Amino acid sequence: MSVKNQHWGSSLEEFLHEEGIHKAAKAEAVTRVLMWQLAEEIHKKGLTKTQMAEQMHTSRSQVDRIFKAKGNVTIETLQRAAALIGRELHLELV
């Protein structure tokens, strides 16, 4: 007789809560979506990372950190990146 998977039938949200990783997974997902949106807009505008860095008055390595979606990127940096593509960054507490 096979052992039943304890997560069988549970939702992803329930699974993440049960594993104690819901907050981390949600933060990672939000960050990745934001970086994907930024990358898509940069690609549409035909900008390179070097051009983006120049226009943001920052280093190419900082732009790389933004797109890797890892580490601490300041809200100010994200706002400048959003402004570069004609968008605004909106954050809210819910």
Topology:
Blueprint: H1 12-19, H2 22-45, H3 49-56, H4 60-68, H5 75-84
Helix pairs in contact: 3-4
Any overview of this molecule?
- The protein has one domain (12-84): 434 Repressor (Amino-terminal Domain) (Orthogonal Bundle).
- Helix 3 crosses helix 4.
- The longest helix has 24 residues, at 22-45.
- The chain is mainly α.
- It has helices at 12-19, 22-45, 49-56, 60-68, 75-84.
Question: How do you describe this structure in short?
Answer:
The protein has 94 residues and is an all-alpha fold.
Notable characteristics:
434 Repressor (Amino-terminal Domain), 5 helices, elongated, 94 residues, mainly alpha
CATH superfamily: lambda repressor-like DNA-binding domains
Helix content: 55-70%
Beta-strand segment tally: 0
Q: Please report the number of helical segments.
A: 5
**CATH architecture tag:** Orthogonal Bundle
Taking the alpha carbons of the first and last residues, their distance comes to: 46 Å
The unreliable regions are none
CATH uppermost class: Mainly Alpha
In sequence order, what are the helices and strands, one letter per element?
A: HHHHH
How big is the Rg? 18 Å
Mean pLDDT, all residues = 85
Strand content: under 5%
- What can be said about the biggest beta sheet? none
How many domains would you count in the coordinates?
A: 1
